[in-house]
Fold these 2 entries.
Entry 1:
Amino acid sequence: METFKRHRRLRSSDYMRDLVRENHLSLDDLIYPMFVKEEGQTEEITSMPGIYQYTLPDFAKELDEVVALGIKAIILFGIPAHKDEEGTGAYNDEGIIQQATRLVKKNHPELLVVADTCMCEYTSHGHCGVIKHQDVDNDASLKLLAQTAVSQAKAGADIIAPSNAMDGFVLTIREALNEAGFSEVPIMSYAVKYASSFYGPFREAADSTPKFGNRKTYQMDPANSREAMRELVSDIEEGADMFIIKPSMAFLDVVNEAKHYTNAPIVCYNVSGEYSMVKAAAQNGWIDEKRVIEETLVGMKRAGADLIITYFAKDVANMIHGGQQ
Ligand code: PBG
């Protein structure tokens, strides 16, 4: 009689390993972030190879490719022609995101549009709301955020994803959507959003670096996980339908813990800095890019993510279709 366990029995061949694999990557679970700009030319984001700020006509072409690859959902970020103190571009019915959303719904009605509901791309100071006494004013910002969400829903957004990290943003947006006749539009809340250095490349991409200070009075301290559960619980109570945890790679314990608090879908945001690190190492030939992408994303599934917002969505699609990356 053997006295030890033979774990290798279930690792003996590709088919055997496939048979016992516990987690899988599927295009069904991925949301692809895209940047759309109101004026100027389409440009690649220096720190995010393969990711572009698109003009509307180029965005339309890119959408055809995204849909052909089998991607089913995108999240949109806008780069407006003009910014101001009150971020009016965010809630203007003719704003860049509203135009882009209408374009998606016209060309590819089935493609799900997630609207990132925030103001940092639209404010001249780069903060996520309106400023009073050198800080973001919570309740004044909520009003504008609700207007933004309604304007995005009117343009055809399928999911509203508030990300400005103000207290009460889910409840305020839910009430405003209901009142405007959008009670069927779900809210994917950025419930747990850390004040992270991993957003650096995104701020280049979205031109949204704060002109003074930082976001630490509204985004969370990366050292905390019990605080994350408090944030999650209040968004559950306020009626959010799905919950984002962001960033991902350094926060998978938080993703796992969140599963004990809700049965609703948990979304990992695999953020810009996480993308840039992999791309940079791959460009240097230091890692096997495809395998690192797979390991990173399946790790998020293993931790408990139901969905993943990732700049790698096209890479994954190409990997699944066995095509070129
Ligand atoms: C808007 C927003 C940010 C990201 C998503 N929505 C930037 C921020 O909070 O500074 C970051 C996404 C990424 O880094 O990929 N507030």
Entry 2:
Amino acid sequence: LLERVGFIGLGNMGFHMVNNLINAGIKVCVHDINSNVMEKFSDKGVCTKETPFEVAETSDVVITMLPSASHVLDVYTGQNGLLHRGNLLTPWLFIDSSTIDPQTSRRLSATISNCVLKEKKGCGGSPVLLDAPVSGGVLGAEAGTLTFMVGGLQEAYLAAEPLFLSMGKHTIYCGGNGNGAAAKICNNLAMAVSMLGVSEAFSLGQSLGITASTLTKIFNSSSARCWSSDSYNPVPGVMQGVPASRNYDGGFSSKLMAKDLNLAVASAEEISLKCPMTSEAQAIYMGLCKEGHESKDFSCVFRHHYSGKDE
Ligand code: NAD
């Protein structure tokens, strides 16, 4: 049912995800507006198409991995988009792995389920959207160890599971449409707040005379232990192989973190839920971007927000 896979958005994440599909022996057809990256695939003999619609025409399932909601809407509902000629769609399944807000994802799902398939197949004879954002970053995308958090029809999720497992290590079904998107922005807001908490504590600790290395040992065997202290330490030199130890290059950019916090704040506002920590983290990351650190890894908050040093 899902033999022919279309993939749109061959950036930092999508590029590696497609390679993992290819390595798993899956037939793919790709599109990106960036012709350089398209060439990398056509040079390897991979099918490339000029528009999302052309990809859809030759696919049972199309996966999208795009920067933000406006790009996603453009690729699905824009001219020559995936849903162009919505009464004669070829793919029965669409999987959006971009990090976007749950509301847009739910609206898009309703639009897709109102389209008609060329041939009746898949779940219930109507086309289906799954929101399936990922965690694990560029390294996880390359290594094929991503975690997929998936919202939408459970039957479609089960059909797509082997595809997720060709690109990742874990898949978690989160419930109806938009729940994958909701899970992703909640994960990232918790990650932002814990990174700020750890950075603040290291900064205070250093000022009070205790080194970050000692404090890290204490945190990691005490109740403050978290991913930001034991796997992604923000203090240069404390851990090898993390962005903090290579001038905060690579990793997950402050710009993407600011984007995800904006999504979390907007979602909270829409339902009038107070999220003060999220708002504070949003202000800090927007500030870092304004100061020119938008392409540095988000753990650079330790250097730029707390120690105030500009190297
Ligand atoms: P990216 O900017 O590197 O890649 C996006 C790709 O989409 C680019 O190649 C771009 O040319 C292409 N694109 C944009 N508009 C297009 C259009 N209209 N038609 C066709 N192609 C188009 O972004 P990324 O880092 O790969 O992230 C993709 C998504 O994954 C984002 O939503 C991001 O928040 C999320 N994400 C990223 C990471 C990470 O560490 N980079 C981790 C988890 C989730």
